[in-house]
């Protein structure tokens, strides 16, 4: 069965394609390769196209027969969203709207959407469940929240069945190192730390050491990318059973500070990580930790691989063999 995977050449999308192929589906990647990698498309065919171009979306429906959509394609850098919000509204919101309209037009009514804990904003150090207030701090979070709303409206009017996953911090890599995390420029903490370990960069700047947390650095809830994409396969099957229109946080409920992540990387790699103390980064929340077990309860999801040790170990293995970087 064909499943359309937008952003299938990206970090999370490529892992999802692998999980889908393993589960017996045929992932059809749709990607503009602006941030994704051709070499990451290893588990099914692809169509090159852009979601802001309706004719390229039409092409994927002409060439294939997707029964459901996993929608990962998006810009996702907070710093970029802060400096160029229009880009985020156009790409993430208009692109998603085009896709959702095409899905309805072609009767492809099972839709899984990658949303984010960035839709919650900064909620005073509480753990976040799906009913926590959504007050995004930046255009990235706002764009994702808007798409959540569009899905709701299309569910009511057009019967689009959807699952919305609000990701916490996705980390790690395929334990078999076939695909992994690689962004250009890299802005994410763990790959930056591993670049420093490998000597590719001089060190890591810790963005802010005066936050109201125990060690002064921001706290995040890290979830292994393999666990995250397993949730998508479960969500897809759940939709196919006729259920839907539900939101799930995907996090583990455990928070790690920036300093704890760096210490963990030192232990896993047994190497030093030079650090510099820097200013706060615009758009960062103090603490984002999931306080929900809905995905465990309703989808029977188990984030088994999401220990900090395993995420860094798998990311480090990938880092050493990554073969689609120039
Ligand atoms: N950090 C540093 N130094 C770095 C990079 C990151 O101190 O060089 C800190 C950040 O300030 C933050 C933490 O490490 O406190 C994690 O930063 P990441 O960039 O790895 O992740 P974010 O929490 O900023 O981003 C994640 C997703 C984004 C999403 C965001 C929503 O990766 O796609 O959550 O909050 F937009």
Can you offer a commentary on this structure?
With 326 residues, this protein is an alpha/beta fold. It folds into 2 domains: 2-171 and 222-250, Rossmann fold, CATH 3.40.50; 189-221 and 253-321, UDP-galactose 4-epimerase, domain 1 (Alpha-Beta Complex), CATH 3.90.25. It has helices at 11-22, 54-63, 78-83, 85-105, 139-158, 189-197, 225-240, 258-269, 294-299, 308-321; strands spanning 2-6, 26-31, 46-48, 68-71, 110-116, 161-167, 169-171, 204-207, 219-220, 222-224, 246-250, 256-257, 275-278, 287-288. A 7-stranded parallel β-sheet has the order 3-2-1-4-5-6-11, with helices on both faces. A 3-stranded mixed β-sheet has the order 12-9-14. A two-stranded parallel sheet has the order 7-10. β1 (2-6), α1 (11-22) and β2 (26-31) form a beta-alpha-beta unit. α1 (11-22) crosses α7 (225-240), α4 packs parallel to α5 (139-158) and α6 (189-197) runs parallel beside α8 (258-269). The protein starts with a strand and ends in a 5-residue tail after the last helix.
């Amino acid at each position: 069965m064909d499943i359309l995977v937008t952003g299938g050449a990206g970090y999370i999308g490529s892992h999802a394609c692998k999980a889908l192929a393993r589960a017996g589906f045929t992932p059809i990647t749709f990607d503009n390769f602006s941030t994704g990698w051709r070499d990451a498309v290893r588990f099914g065919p692809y169509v090159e196209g852009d979601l802001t171009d309706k004719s390229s979306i039409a092409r994927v429906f002409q060439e294939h027969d997707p029964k459901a959509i996993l929608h990962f394609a998006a810009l996702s850098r907070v710093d970029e969203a802060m400096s160029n919000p229009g880009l985020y509204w156009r790409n993430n919101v208009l692109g998603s709207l085009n896709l959702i309209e095409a899905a309805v037009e072609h009767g492809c009514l099972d839709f899984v959407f990658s949303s984010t804990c960035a839709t919650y904003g900064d909620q005073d150090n509480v753990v976040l469940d799906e009913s926590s207030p959504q007050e995004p701090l930046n255009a990235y979070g706002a764009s994702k929240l808007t798409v959540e709303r569009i899905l709701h409206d299309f569910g009511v009017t057009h019967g689009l069945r959807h699952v919305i996953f609000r990701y916490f911090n996705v980390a790690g890599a395929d334990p078999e190192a076939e695909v992994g995390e690689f962004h250009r420029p890299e802005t994410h903490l763990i790959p930056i730390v591993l670049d420093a370990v490998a000597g590719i960069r001089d060190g890591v700047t810790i963005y802010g050491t005066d936050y109201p947390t125990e060690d002064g650095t921001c706290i995040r809830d890290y979830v292994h990318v393999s666990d995250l994409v397993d949730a998508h396969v479960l969500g897809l099957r759940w939709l196919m059973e006729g259920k839907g229109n539900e939101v799930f946080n995907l996090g583990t409920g455990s928070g790690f500070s920036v300093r704890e992540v760096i210490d963990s990387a030192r232990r896993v790699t047994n190497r030093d990580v030079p650090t510099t103390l820097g200013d706060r980064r615009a758009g960062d929340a103090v603490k984002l930790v999931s306080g929900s077990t809905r995905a465990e309860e309703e989808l029977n999801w188990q984030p088994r691989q999401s220990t900090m040790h395993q995420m860094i170990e798998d990311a480090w293995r990938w880092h050493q063999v990554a073969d689609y970087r120039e």
